[in-house]
Amino acid sequence: MEQPDTTDDAEASAAAPVPVLREPRDGVPEPLTDAAKLADVVAAMRGGRGPMPIDAERASGYRYSQRAYLVQLRRAGVGTVLIDPIALPDLSGLNEAVGDAEWILHAANQDLACLAELGLRPASLFDTELAGRLLGDERVALGTMAEKHLGVGLEKGHSAADWSTRPLPYDWLVYAALDVELLVPLRDVLAEALEAAGKLEWAQQEFEAVRLAPPPPPRVDPWRRTSGIHKLRSRPQLAAVRALWHARDEYAAERDVAPGRVLPDAAIVEAARRNPARPADLTALPVFGGPRQRRRLDRWFGALEAARALPDDELPPITGGGGDGIPAPARWRDRDPAAAARLAAARDAVSRLAQQHQVLAQNLLASDVVRRLCWQPPAPADGDAVRARLVELGARPWQVELTADPLAAALADS
After folding, report:
1. Does 185 share its domain with 36?
2. Cα radius of gyration rounded to whole Å, the chain
3. Helix H segments across 136-182?
4. Which residue of 56, 101, 187, 259 is most buried, as measured by CB atoms within 10 A?
């Protein structure tokens, strides 16, 4: 009997659009702003079942602070809850309510700090983004991962919104509620894939490291990250950037406005390059002639004047250190060719291991750990010494097990 040709059907099926989830299955709740209703939610969560997906929305790019402006959570037996943390800044009661239940977050390292400000601290967590990275996923946005692993698309589009807006528009609330809608099934699929790949223990170590990570130390010379600063070539110009950056940062912090909305980086760099001698010269430059900047003219020109008055020994160096005395890797070849050779060999070893184990290289071993190891390697750089150094630098046990001997060999051969 002749078999039917199913090629076209298979191709059509493969090309079929992924269904998109546009509304939460249980509807969109109003954000809680009342303490009594929050108490009801805490009581309900106490009787809920299973893990608790949770997410937070900030107003990055609009506000100076990184506080949460909306918290979304969900639990079986309770449903989805949206909370306005401006009206309800203490959510610590939820910790006891869920006990040691696992919290599910996507990119937990982005949200844990602002959740901690509200008193929210997980006893254990599962990070769906990090799980995807350990599985070798290069595209780890929540919508992309839901589509790949669950076959369901998410209605997205408000990730860059100003979440400090009140009241929050309905479509933004839809977006926020959907962020926790699929986290449980996504977590289950990823956990199964991790176990099948022999990576579940890796993931558990990584999740715990994220959960217990201390706050990052203040960045050294944050003004050096001003976009376009590479165009400047003199120490007085860098002093002008530094002065304007700090004047802007102080103003932005006072008013809780993102610094880039107070004064763009391009305007700071142009003012430093042109070195205006008079206030009128400054207002002749792009941006500074606008009405808002004219009102702040004394602040900006005063910063430039203060920078010009600095003695030579107070001018910033052309290149800044990383805060740990280690130069940027791009400068290693000139500063220490042997260290540059070690770094190239170590990076190559990590890259090969990452391909072998189908994990992203940065997740196999952080680039900063590799950098520190290669700048000041142990002596002798044998497997045991490299293993001890990796532990000292914060590598997790699974990372040490996989990378110590290959890195020791790379250091010995370079």
Report:
1. yes
2. 26
3. 142-150, 170-181
4. 56
Half-sphere exposure of 206 (CA within 13 A, CB side): 26
Write the CB contacts of 260 (distance below 8 Å, at least 6 apart in sequence).
61
410, two tokens: 């790379």
Angstrom distance (rounded) from CA 69 to CA 136: 32
Non-local (6+) Cβ contacts of 181 within 8 A are 21, 24, 25, 74, 80, 154
Cβ neighbors of 337 (< 8 A, separation 6 or more) are none
The yes-or-no verdict on residue 8 having pLDDT over 70 is no
Q: What is the DSSP letter of 226?
A: -
Q: Which residue has the tokens 């914060």?
A: 394
Boundaries of domain holding 139:
17-212
Token pair listed for 137? 């996923």
Residue 142 pLDDT > 90: yes
Dist. CA 17–CA 309, nearest whole Å:
64
Q: Is residue 285 part of a domain?
A: yes
Task: Please report the sign of the dihedral spanned by the C-alpha atoms of residue 159, residue 160, residue 166, residue 170.
Answer: negative
Residues in the chain: 414
Chain position carrying tokens 């040691």 = 100
pTM score, whole prediction: 0.90
